[in-house]
């Protein structure tokens, strides 16, 4: 449930940026130097037969990010004419804009093609609890269309214990969990691949690999050559600049070791703010910041206006000193 200030801001943003109509491919122009925000939030009206799973697939979104952006809407039966927010505005992940960047906390992959001022972004299914996807620096080592699947012994044992034994090999075809294509990583045992289960995209469902919608993995494989670097991060809090304003984008932290406390969340936010050496703390909207942290809806929200004097001086501000 959103408090009034954040709810009214979300509505205002949608009135400016919202649009109804068909989906658009998530190939987005890179912002000008020094800026980090791409895309725009959109809105559609659901049809009677729609579900969030179907809307997510049609719009290159993950299931959980659609749920987070639409609190209070029934994901299984939104209803005829219900306004559904499509969270297709993003703060680009921190770090170099090159190759593939996977941010586990937002169940999303970003690809920066060399020599082009665009970014492609796709939803992912990632490792579930007990089979977490790694944080690592790696690369694509091979691409295989129509792969067979050779489930490792650990997965065969797990299925056998659940009364669902697996064969030693699953041939290519509609029942293959790898879908129409796999990309091997330099991390032994980890893949980027398609899937025969659309519902798991944008959720924690895999044994550590990265699942994609089949049309997405085919597109990415056609864009990213073997050797493409892959940087895997886990960053639920992203701070960036868009149009001269500071934005904060918050996702629910992955909870493998127990629930993350509010104190820890605020500490992590402080660290994300301090990482921006050009952010003057005296301009932060602290009330809005608290609400964004509590909402965890994945939508970039303005928390400060950029002060040219602070930027020119390279000041770091005193974020930790003033946070209540």
TrEMBL record:
Similarity comment: Belongs to the YkuD family.
Pathway: Cell wall biogenesis; peptidoglycan biosynthesis
Gene Ontology terms describing biological process: cell wall organization; peptidoglycan-protein cross-linking; regulation of cell shape
Family annotation (PANTHER family): L,D-TRANSPEPTIDASE, L,D-TRANSPEPTIDASE ERFK_SRFK-RELATED
A GO CC annotation given for this chain: extracellular region
Active-site residues from the entry: 193 (proton donor/acceptor), 209 (nucleophile)
Residues making up the signal peptide according to the UniProt record: 1-25
Domain L,D-TPase catalytic: 98-233
Source organism: Pseudomonas flexibilis
Record keywords: Cell shape, Cell wall biogenesis/degradation, Glycosyltransferase, Hydrolase, Peptidoglycan synthesis, Signal, Transferase
A GO term, aspect molecular function: glycosyltransferase activity
Name of this chain's protein: L,D-transpeptidase ErfK/SrfK
InterPro entries, per the entry: LD-transpeptidase (IPR050979), LD_TPept_cat_dom (IPR005490), LysM (IPR018392), Transpep_catalytic_dom (IPR038063)
